[in-house]
Write a structure and sequence with these properties.
It is built from 22 helices and 30 strands. It has 747 residues and is of the alpha/beta class. It is globular, with a radius of gyration of 29 Å.
């Protein structure tokens, strides 16, 4: 797995132990968190180790983790109940196909009592600091007793982080949110005192929480305004198309009363163990069958897309407005498929309004949208999710510093998702590259615990002081995981459909990632991926959407980049303070064919958009006070235009002048402004070829052959190399220049 340090005596020799080989020496273990992973760890240690001491610190007043914390109306598991349970404690008495949160919490509390786990658990104790002490070979912890306010000190040989990823909820970043005078509630911190009956309620978000809250509130509120940012696929309770015939028969054969099991069915689960095991296996097959959709080896994703579209349309009563707002146009599997019993039906109710307009700000009496409309509400429910960045919630200091800081600067990585380089005797559950988005976390927790126990036994019997994975091993595992991602449907299709044509974004992002740039990639419409090419280089990447012609959206995009990645980083619309304004469109029409609207549209994006990006990037860089690099995007058309696209060269000549002017103005702030100019891309080939009677590709080849000195086409890699140079330190004395990568077409 990695490196380990054997015990040595003070004089450098090795002591002779007066004990039999393989004797298990005493080991002290601390687990943080008494949720699913923490409770399972208690049992696994009891079954596997001897001569050990184990303490679990839990910040909440009861065990259960996320199932103790999430109590909003309609909260339930989005996996089949009989798949969401430990293999060592099955529960034939689940009341319904997908159990409510209260029932899962009761299940966890019951097994905690039945297994007599409470003596090992300290409730209302929050770990606030952990540090590895090399001299003692132990972790030293500071723990706050939330009842008394006392700070408790403790130490251990091994530290197990079972805090999970669904416990650090966050408010949405909406201007004026705290100015609201009504009830403001987050789904993950639901107040028992919140009375929503007969009120006008806004629900923001249609993720896993939102699709459960809406149908739960709808019957009891006066009006429900559901704010939806992007469409999402809603799964029916069962997906027969993906299952074997025997599993379909077993699942369909269960006697249900709506979504609930009848008492007769529950009794059959109890009495017939063989049948119950087959039912459990059928639910597991249903969950795992979705993997086939991701890899799309058999066209299942397309088939499922058709089926879901038909089912969702029917549930929405074929309402055109709702269909446009809720049903995605991308293939099923490009985003996590969300079970939502009753959600679609609730949207058709007369007291529900689905709103896709962007929220501009919150005012004391309600919400203002991008249309300028004020929607007056009495309460706002934010179903806006959690911080799932993997960064620890408190300082965890290993050999190379605080893991919080390390993972803030680089892509989180862990060997087998549970062990971190330079963090001795430290394991975590649901870490980077864990299969947390696929299958039951109960199964994952059990398998990770088994793996950890193997290491603990080795430590006990082989006189080891510390064990940690080598950085090379961590990187190799991450590389394996990232290499697999492009095979999956969710990334593959989005790369094809939303990343620009002919590999341009792939090559640029890869080169910038390899230069240690962290990238905020911006698209005009909301993409649904984190760029896999950036991830594969080991750097962080965020993806957002912005209309570059909209001042507020560009400003918000830069603010998001600074908030999530630090000072203005390399972004594809914008290290070391670099901003690439790369937005641009072309409408290939001649002078006499181009309408005023088309001409204005091109100039609005290519000129006004670049101007707004230049301006907002300059504001941020001046504020940072560390200089910076702004790189504008134009075209060879800014030097030597081609016929058939009058608006395009006009806009690119304008960008050329704008770049020179901005360079003069920003030089006192040590900000370089340059332009990168590229030859005709293949995107123009088809339109120009059609006008000239040429086959696809011939117009492009003809342009290269007749105009390029080298008689070879420039590639995305060529442009990426130029941008990388302009973004790097070697270009410190270059500004106001418009550099060509054209193979010698214009001089």
């Amino acid at each position: 797995m990695g490196s380990y340090t054997p015990e040595q005596s003070l004089d450098g020799g090795f002591p002779i132990m007066e004990e039999p080989m393989g004797t298990a020496r005493h080991i002290k273990i601390i687990t943080i968190g008494a949720g699913v992973s923490g409770l399972n760890m208690i049992r696994r240690l009891r079954k596997s180790l001897i001569n050990y001491e184990h303490t679990v610190y839990e910040k909440n007043p009861e065990v259960g983790g996320t199932w103790f914390e999430n109590t909003y109306p309609g909260c339930q598991c989005d996996h089949p109940s009989h798949n969401y349970q430990f293999s060592w404690r099955t529960n034939p008495a689940w009341s319904q196909f997908s159990a409510p949160s209260s029932e899962i919490e009761a299940y966890l509390c019951d097994l905690c009592d039945a297994e007599n786990m409470r003596p090992e658990i300290k409730l209302s104790h929050q770990v606030s600091h952990a540090q590895w002490i090399e001299a003692s070979g132990k972790w030293e912890l500071e723990i706050l007793n939330l009842k008394t306010g006392e700070m408790v000190l403790d130490s251990c040989h091994f530290l197990l982080n079972a805090t999970g990823v669904l416990n650090n909820w966050k408010w949405p970043d909406i201007p004026g949110l705290n100015d609201f005078k009504g009830d403001l509630v987050h789904s993950a911190a639901w107040s028992k005192n919140f009375d929503y009956h007969n009120k006008r309620v806004a629900v923001i978000g249609n993720g896993s929480s939102g699709v459960q809250i809406v149908p739960a509130l709808q019957p009891d509120v006066a009006n429900l305004f559901h704010f939806v940012r992007s469409p999402t696929w809603i799964l029916p309770p069962q997906t027969d198309r993906l299952l074997t015939k025997s599993s379909v028969e077993i699942l369909r054969g269960a006697v249900m009363d709506g979504s609930k099991f009848t008492q007769q069915q529950i009794q059959r689960f109890r009495d017939d163990q063989n049948y119950y095991k087959s039912f459990i296996k059928a639910t597991e097959e249903q969950v795992n069958a979705l993997f086939k959709v991701l890899v799309d080896n058999e066209g299942l994703a397309k088939d499922l897309t058709v089926t879901l579209t038909e089912n969702m349309s029917a549930a929405l009563k074929h309402d055109p407005k709702l269909i446009k707002a809720i049903i995605p146009t991308f293939t099923a599997g490009c985003r996590r498929l969300t079970p939502g019993p009753g959600y679609l039906e609730s949207l058709t109710a007369s007291n529900v309004s689905v709103i896709t307009d962007k929220i501009i700000r919150v005012v004391p009496g309600g919400i203002i949208t991008s249309t300028g409309e004020l929607i007056e509400v009495d309460a706002i429910v934010c179903a806006t999710g959690f911080d799932v960045s993997f960064r620890p919630r408190f300082p965890i200091i290993g050999r190379n510093g605080n893991l919080q800081d390390i993972w803030a600067k680089q892509l989180p990585a862990a060997y087998m998702s549970c062990a971190v380089a330079h963090m001795p005797n430290y394991f975590l559950f649901m870490g980077p590259n864990s299969p947390a988005g696929h299958g039951s976390i109960m199964t994952i927790a059990e398998q990770v615990a088994r793996y950890i126990v193997v290491v603990l036994k080795k430590w006990q019997t082989e006189c080891i002081v510390s064990v940690a994975p080598k950085e090379a091993a961590v990187n190799e595992f991450a590389g394996f995981a990232h290499a697999f991602l492009p095979r999956t449907k969710d990334l593959l299709e989005k790369v094809k459909s939303e990343v620009e044509a002919k590999g341009r974004w792939k090559e640029w992002s890869t080169q910038w990632g390899e230069m240690d740039f962290e990238q905020a990639i911006v698209f005009p419409q909301k993409p649904l991926l984190i760029n896999p090419f950036v991830i594969a280089t080991g750097r962080r990447s965020i993806v957002s959407c912005a209309d570059v012609t909209n001042d507020e959206e560009v400003s918000a995009m830069i603010a998001k980049t600074v908030d999530q990645l630090g000072e203005l980083n390399l972004t594809s619309i914008g290290n070391g303070q670099v901003f690439v304004a790369n937005a641009g469109i072309v409408i290939p029409n001649s002078l006499v064919e181009t309408t005023t609207a088309q001409f204005t549209q091109v100039l609005n994006v290519n000129v006004v958009g670049v101007f707004i990006c230049y301006r907002e990037a300059a504001k941020q860089m001046i504020k940072q006070g560390k200089g910076g690099k702004i790189i504008g995007a134009s075209s060879l058309a800014g030097y030597r235009p081609s016929p058939g696209a009058i608006s395009y060269p006009t806009s690119k000549w304008a960008v050329r002048g704008m770049t020179q002017s901005a360079a003069m103005e920003l030089a006192p702030h040590d900000i370089n402004v340059n332009g990168k100019f590229i030859p005709m891309w293949e995107v123009l080939d088809e339109a120009i070829g059609k006008k000239q009677g040429l086959a696809k590709g011939e117009a492009f080849d003809k342009s290269v052959e007749t105009r390029s000195a080298f008689k070879r086409a420039s590639t995305p890699e060529d442009v990426a190399a130029l941008v990388s140079f302009l973004a790097g330190p070697g270009s410190r004395n270059i500004t106001g220049q418009s550099l060509l990568v054209d193979g010698g077409i214009a001089f």
